[in-house]
């Protein structure tokens, strides 16, 4: 029985709700049958009675504000949505599959579908999307593209609906990587290929978009760029086997790291700003002290092939590296905790989500995988792309993941856990 006490639970699959409601409707209809079927009210009343007489399962979540006065009304029949609505102490709890849409302030939402559900699709690029990154405030997503000849661009995408905000066309070569500064004021692009002589790092003012400076100190294609957390330095990695630290104010070089024996494919700055992490075709992961870059602080040699990607979790506990596999490394000494082997082809990008709960990886197998941080087990798999996926980013609150593919598209993917309750505060989703 549902009590009127605090900390009641709501936690059921949508199918379970529908089955139980339909059963209760039949019972009430049989006992409360009225002559005039057009005027009888058992349809709504049965739902109210149903919710007051059951606990709707238990255990998925406890929310102190969800106490009494529940009711279920008929799903909308306008062809646009399929939802049930609960009244919860003056608020509304919408039970809906997929991502919430059309919210009103103070509405509550209960997610009944598995996460990994596609939101919007952005198709504004004309060729491969090599990288995707979300801005720090969650309002915009940035994507980089190129085809060796044209469309060497960076796009700013509105995270709310997937519309294009602006296009930066100042790059002279394909855009391999995009990074956002910690304040969201600037974006950095890394360019170049085996055939391009233009190997560059551009600092782009997001209010323009205009270029603030350009760095040309690498001698071969720049495959990666990342911004330090304190907003003072930018780090670039290139096929000249080097990592460079750049001054964010003018793009001048502070130092270069030469400890790798082959192309450096990716670089990631730690959240405390003390270390950066690089991976290479020499099959190694290196931790670099930003104050004393040479030699490496530690090296991880547990990969058996080229290491393409590296990411650091925001809590500064783990480093993630990948090629065919994703490895979780202890940040203090580079020892391996687990490895993830769920992809069937090359892993092209890795990003660690906020909260230290999940890591996301993308691959030539056309899939986005959610990986549990604790044990490396697979969470959800998104298979909405028809082509290899090269870039993945996650929003600052972890609610959405963004992926970019060789099919020239960026996809928004819901990463809201099944059973999560959220509310719209008038500006953003909260309460997950």
Please tell me about this protein's structure:
The chain is mainly beta and 432 residues long. It has 2 domains: 14-115 and 419-430, no CATH class; 120-413, YVTN repeat-like/Quinoprotein amine dehydrogenase (Methylamine Dehydrogenase, Chain H, 7 Propeller), CATH 2.130.10. The protein is built from 2 helices and 33 strands. A hairpin with a 3-residue loop joins strand 22 (318-322) and strand 23. The radius of gyration is 25 Å and the shape is globular.
List the helices and strands and how they pair.
Layout lengths: L13 H18 L10 H12 L30 E5 L2 E6 L11 E4 L6 E5 L6 E6 L5 E6 L8 E5 L5 E5 L6 E6 L5 E6 L9 E5 L4 E6 L6 E6 L5 E6 L4 E5 L5 E5 L6 E6 L5 E6 L4 E5 L8 E3 L8 E4 L5 E5 L3 E5 L5 E5 L6 E6 L5 E6 L4 E5 L5 E5 L6 E6 L5 E6 L4 E5 L6 E4 L4 E2 L2
What is the CATH first-level class name of the largest domain?
Mainly Beta
By CATH, the topology of the largest domain is Methylamine Dehydrogenase, Chain H
Number of domains: 2
Q: Portion of residues in helices?
A: under 10%
Strand sequence of the main sheet, in spatial order?
1-2-3-32-33
Structural class: mainly beta
What is the CATH-assigned architecture of the largest domain? Answer: 7 Propeller
* Mean pLDDT value: 78
- Give the beta-strand count: 33
Runs in which pLDDT lies below 50 for 5 or more consecutive residues are 1-18, 34-98
Largest sheet: 5 strands, mixed
Terminal CA distance:
26 Å
CATH superfamily of the largest domain: YVTN repeat-like/Quinoprotein amine dehydrogenase
